[in-house]
Write a structure and sequence with these properties.
This protein is an alpha/beta fold. The chain has one domain: Rossmann fold, CATH 3.40.50.300. Helices cover 28% and strands 19% of the residues. The protein has a six-stranded mixed beta sheet with strand order 6-7-8-3-9-10, sandwiched between helices. It has a four-stranded antiparallel beta sheet with strand order 2-1-4-5, covered by helices on one side. A hairpin with a 2-residue loop joins strand 9 and strand 10. The longest helix is centred in the middle third of the chain and has 18 residues. It binds adenosine-5'-triphosphate (ATP). Keywords: ATP-binding, Nucleotide-binding, Transport. It comes from Paenibacillus lactis 154. It holds the Pfam family ABC_tran. This is ABC transporter related protein. GO terms for molecular function: ATP binding; ATP hydrolysis activity; transmembrane transporter activity.
């Protein structure tokens, strides 16, 4: 469902060109959960931004369900992201003035989904992620692990084709990290949602069935179709399948840390919604930009949410 072909990327800084990704090729199948591993500066965030359609590569093709998103216009990419991509960030990126439930509902507000429908779906997901009882609280009243559960629920509410999680446990202690990973693995299995988890932590990668490793912008995962330029690292061994989320150290030698500064997380993007709350999207079908209903601006969406009473629906509610 996600395939990269010969993807390279360079950043220009005045007359200097810095090539940070070199001929990356791999495939992620529908329902897979993979770790994108590498030390600081190896190119993980850049690659994530490319796969999520937040940036275009200098060279190569990125196919999602057979569609090359590199060829999309900016408008079409924005539509694509809202419909098909979910994000989970290290810093949760919740809106502090909205309740937990309102935060989870927000992507559906952008899609003009009726209030009662989005509320029902948000509550279902909060129950699944184990924080249904926190629905009317504000993010600041929650622990880090609980906030990340909210973020996971929010990423799932539109039933995206793929969820990109950028260091999702980076701010959490070991026990909470395991809880969050277990939730994501359970959701991956029960909803067949594809997850790509960016991490520099071996413990996180060790729990994934498949790992893609970057080193200085080259793919070094053995047996996964790295490009012809990619140096094979004899010390890197493919991570074994791990049914239980038990932390163990794989025999992977971490590349040396780079001193380059890290990129910032990309904007929070609200994907689209399918009509039936329980329905899975069988395959990605990317419609033309014109098919997208006009979504409210984020500020309007937040205002709309804040106007929502937390009690029972009033008579005359649109649904
Ligand atoms: N906008 C930019 N302009 C110039 N160089 C950049 C830009 N963004 C990233 N880089 C460089 O690209 C390389 C890869 O950066 P990237 O943030 O993708 O690495 P990373 O593996 O995600 O690191 P970290 O784990 O620290 O977030 C680094 O050398 C970085 O300095």
């Amino acid at each position: 469902m996600l395939r990269l072909e010969n993807v390279s990327h360079s950043f220009k800084n005045g007359s200097e060109v810095l090539k940070v990704l070199h001929n990356i090729e791999f495939e992620v199948k529908e329902g897979e959960m993979i770790a994108l591993l590498g030390s600081s500066g190896s190119g993980k965030s850049t690659l994530l931004n490319l796969m999520a359609g937040l940036m275009k590569p200098t060279e190569g093709h990125i196919y999602i369900a057979g569609q090359d998103i590199v060829k999309y216009s900016e408008n079409k990419l924005a539509v694509f992201r809202r419909k098909h991509i979910g994000f989970i960030f290290q810093a949760y990126e919740l809106i502090p003035t909205l309740t937990v439930r309102e935060n989870v509902e927000l992507p559906l507000v952008f899609q003009s989904v009726p209030r009662s429908k989005r509320r029902k779906k948000a509550m279902e997901l909060l129950e699944i992620t184990g924080i249904g009882d926190k629905a009317e609280m504000y993010p600041s009243q929650l622990s880090g692990g609980q906030q990340q559960r909210v973020s996971i629920a929010r990423s799932l509410i539109t039933e995206p084709s793929v969820i990109f999680a950028d260091e999702p446990t980076g701010n959490l202690d070991t026990k909470t990290e395991e809880e969050i990973l277990r939730i994501m693995m359970t959701l991956n299995q029960s909803m067949n949602t594809t997850f790509v988890i960016v991490t520099h932590e071996m413990e996180v990668a060790a729990q994934m069935k498949k790992t893609i490793m970057l080193r200085d912008g080259y793919l070094v995962t053995p047996g996964e179709g790295s490009g012809p330029e990619a140096p094979r690292q004899p010390e890197v061994i493919a991570l074994a399948a791990c049914e239980e989320p038990v932390v163990h150290k794989p025999e992977v030698v971490a590349p040396a840390a780079s001193e380059e500064p890290a990129m910032h997380s990309p904007e929070v993007i609200a994907p689209a919604v399918t009509e039936e709350p329980g329905a899975r999207q069988p395959e990605v079908v990317v419609p033309a930009a014109s098919e997208e209903p006009a979504a409210p601006e984020p500020a309007d969406a937040a205002q709309e949410l804040q106007a929502v009473p937390s009690g029972p629906e009033k008579a005359g509610d649109e649904s």
